[in-house]
Design a protein that fits this description.
The chain has 2 domains: 34 residues; 249 residues, SGNH hydrolase (Rossmann fold, 3-Layer(aba) Sandwich). It has a 5-stranded parallel β-sheet. The chain has 14 helices and 5 strands. 48% of the residues lie in helices and 7% in strands. By secondary structure, it is of the alpha/beta class.
């Protein structure tokens, strides 16, 4: 009886030790994947390592790096990067731009979702890790993205939240009471998850810089994305539904885009834009700001203070004429918009052609010469 009991206890101990060992191994692999490159044999091909916030933007950067290392692309190729939010994704076909342009540059689009310049900053920092440095970087934005209004957390996503202060009140008793309420925690779980992913992303990028690792190390194996193709989502129909257009305008009002007071001082969005430009200038890249086209309703509500704020930010942060601004806000008719900002399928093709022709004299004026 005693032996059977001892045998049972021994089996339980063995199970506990084995479970602990498996848990420890899993923790080490996950932690290793979050902070450092994971060996390829540990994860299936094409799976992002460690944490779930490897964006489509990041996958394109990594794909371009991989193509460069494997000499799939000519090392002497000169690149033009077009960067920005979803209006850039829907607005450009890089194959058309490369074909129409006489500059000799090979154009690539890097886009993300959300109108925050802070999000553009932390995504674009991946280019600092890459050996593929663009000759030209075009930042496709709206002046209204410089709005500094604080947005209620209930309508904010990753692109608008940067830390836990945006969720919590700062009063200890109030915040503890909130955390004890299941409904409140559940209602804020997306924001908390986004902030944690955002923070890990920043840490990871800094570590990669410290260890001099390229962006292709963000993946367990070679990413399967064509860096030279167009970024296409859903806007193939000529015009979006009315409820979508109304919701779009509601969010922009909440973001403070149409409030003149939102542009009275330099804020986090302006600081992020400055840092993006400075990062590329340190690479030796010529930076252009492109004011993206907007539909009638968006353009009619944009306060003059938004454009004035943009001009002031550029003027105060950079020497004269070093960051040219190309204004194409009025370049497209209403029929080419899917909604108030995104171009539809036909609009994308036409705008890509017009951009390629519009930027040529700017490249000549600023003596942007591709590598021989």
């Amino acid at each position: 009886m005693m032996k059977a009991s001892e045998s049972g206890i021994s089996n339980i101990k063995t199970i506990i030790i084995a479970a602990a060992a498996i848990a420890a191994a899993f923790f080490i692999i996950v932690a290793f994947g979050v902070l450092l490159p994971t060996p390829k044999f540990l994860l299936p091909e094409g799976i992002p390592m460690g944490w779930a916030n490897v964006s489509y933007y990041g996958q394109k950067v990594a794909s371009l790096e991989t193509a460069y290392k494997k000499k799939i692309i000519d090392p002497s190729t000169s690149f033009g990067f077009i960067m920005g939010a979803s209006v850039v994704r829907e607005g450009f076909d890089p194959l058309i731009v490369s074909k129409v342009s006489d500059s000799g540059l090979r154009w690539i689009v890097f886009s993300h979702s959300g109108g925050s310049l802070e999000k553009l900053e932390y995504l674009s920092r991946q280019h600092l890790l890459s050996r593929v440095k663009p000759t030209v970087a075009v930042l496709g934005i709206y002046p209204t993205q410089l709005a500094g209004t604080r947005i209620p957390s209930s309508v904010r996503g990753l692109d608008q939240i940067s830390n836990f202060k945006d969720i919590f009140s700062g009063n200890l008793k109030t915040d503890v009471d909130r955390l004890l309420k299941k409904e409140w925690v559940l209602s804020k779980r997306k924001e908390m998850n986004d902030i944690l992913k955002h923070s890990l992303y920043r840490i990871r990028l800094r570590l990669f810089q410290l260890f001099e690792l390229g962006p292709d190390a963000l993946f367990a194996a070679n990413p399967k994305i064509n860096p030279f193709g167009a970024d296409i989502k859903v806007y193939r129909t000529p015009r979006g539904p009315e409820y979508h257009l109304k919701r779009q305008m509601t969010y922009w009002h909440l973001f403070g885009w149409f409030d003149p007071r939102a542009y009275q001082s330099r804020n986090g969005q302006a600081e992020a834009l400055i840092r993006v430009i400075e990062d590329f200038q340190r690479m030796g890249t010529r930076v252009f700001i492109l004011l993206m086209p907007g539909a009638t309703q968006l353009r009619s509500l944009e306060p003059p203070e938004a454009h004035q704020a943009l001009k002031a930010v550029i003027k105060n942060a950079f020497p004269a004429e070093t960051v040219p601004v190309i204004d194409m806000r009025d370049s497209m008719k209403e029929e080419y918009f899917y909604d108030n900002s995104h171009l539809n399928w036909e609009g994308r093709k036409l705008f890509s052609y017009r951009f390629a022709k519009t930027i040529e004299p700017y490249l000549e004026q600023h003596q942007v010469v591709p590598k021989p």
